[in-house]
Amino acid sequence: MNLEPSHIVLALFAFTIAGLIKFQSKPERVFGVLLLVLFACGFVTNEQVVASFANTGVLTLILLMVCSLALEKTKILRQIANYVVRPSYIRSWLNLFTFSALSSAVLNNTAVVSAMLAPIRSNLYHAPSRLLIPLSYAAILGGTLTLVGTSTNLIVNSMVVESGLPALGFFDFTLIGSLLVVGCGATLLLTSRWLPNRFEQTKVIADYFIDTKVMAGSSLIGRSIEDNGLRNLEALFLVELQRGGHLISPVSPSQVLQQGDRLLFSGDIKKVTLLNQFSGLESFANQNGLPLDNLSEVIVRPESSLVGKTLKHVGFRALFDAAVVAIKRDGERLSGKLGDVTLKPGDNLVLAVGEDFKSRHNLNKNFFFVSGVETERTLTPNKEWLAVLGFVASIALSALGLVPLFKSLLLFLGVLLLTNTLKPNEILQRLPTQIWLIISSALLLSYALSNTQATDLLDKLIDTHQQSFTPLLGVCVVYLVTWWLTELVTNNAAAALVFPIAIGLASSLGVDPTGFIMAVAFGASASFVSPYGYQTNLMVYNAGQYRIADFIKVGLPVSLVFGLITVGSIAVVYGYL
User: What is the DSSP code string of 317-380?
Assistant: First the structure.
């Protein structure tokens, strides 16, 4: 049986979707396999493979994400964030929503959420669980306002350019995005009454789990907990003592310490250096020869190779030139040795890092970095101004149509490197190679669909249903499929997959494809029901001790309003009625 090339490519498209659903934590591998199969089977040419990776739109996205690293090292976002939370909940909610939405219109929304996490979690007025979902949703909505507001808009634009269509403008998203910010924001304000109130629980469970060991020759040996002064540490509380195979909790003040005892503390990680005052009491980092004066806080990514493994068996020092000082799993109390804890997605780790840590290329694949807590190299005041004003100028020149965004960002990156505001190893560490591979592979899929005339099958399908298949119905189908895939397989993968189908559908219907392109872009940002479809949702999911039911209760009405506004606005603006 001879299969037509078009049928094989469509089958590969279907298998890619199935693979993304099956292996949600490893989308780059699924797309990598797709790329290899398309190339091996001759469905794409050598020139098309090179062009997909060197696409101007893709490189613009990479440049934007790299340049934003300089902003993450400034204090400005964190300083503003400290003024957002007020005694009034409504005032705090409005401040938070406005600041997050407007910031996310021009900044990486992951950076915005990272900057806001610490001030919200440490505020004295409201439970973090009352504010963190609104923070994430506001960042998502703000990203729909401009071309650079979210990576999905830039991904879609790169595919638009590659298709030979005019590039999308900086403000092409603003009209519909503004309606979404207002309409979905009002809906979110109403549904926020259903957010859980877990203030006290957060205070207890959000503390870090710190494992230490009494070493041979320690002055602590033979003396009680109280005599050693281990009961009155600032912001650190001794919760367990592990001796051999026995766990002692609560720990009596009169308990006499022995060599090899493991003391398990809970509390503020910033105070962990207090433990250095006790001779012979060492943490994982001390035992690995790493000091506690250079700490970084990270969140374990869902696709990390560490998930499901214990620190004891993973070879952490060899992999990252770092040692885990403490671990935090919001919503769950940890117990036992730190090395025996099985890591899960969303776990917060505090690392003592070595000199080689920043140059490791596997960091971005395994961790999200928490801005404001990571003890990274800070910028001088002059360099902070350079980073902020340079970024604003780059975006403004593009928004005004004076300089292409690619050119302004490339020049800005050159200035950052020449002034040592960013270092090459920092860029290599955070280079978004996963997104690069996903977009390039999706571009190749669109080439393959065109090369094999697979999109001609859409013409036949529409011809047989010409009376019922209207442009409005086509937009609805494109939006719903993109939204569905976003909740299942993440936003960037959804946009990359649906785009070639949307273009083919618009061509078959003989209408302006811009509305269909917008349906893909906005549909890929409509992640409000699942905590796993968007990075910012995952970040607040653990921090707010949420359950999936919380996202459904609050997010489903927002998602429905988002869909109605998007489809309705596209139909009116692009004349599909």
Answer: HHHHSEEEEEEE-TTS---S-GGGPBP-TT-EEEEEE-TTGGG-TTHHHHEEE-TTTS-PPPPP
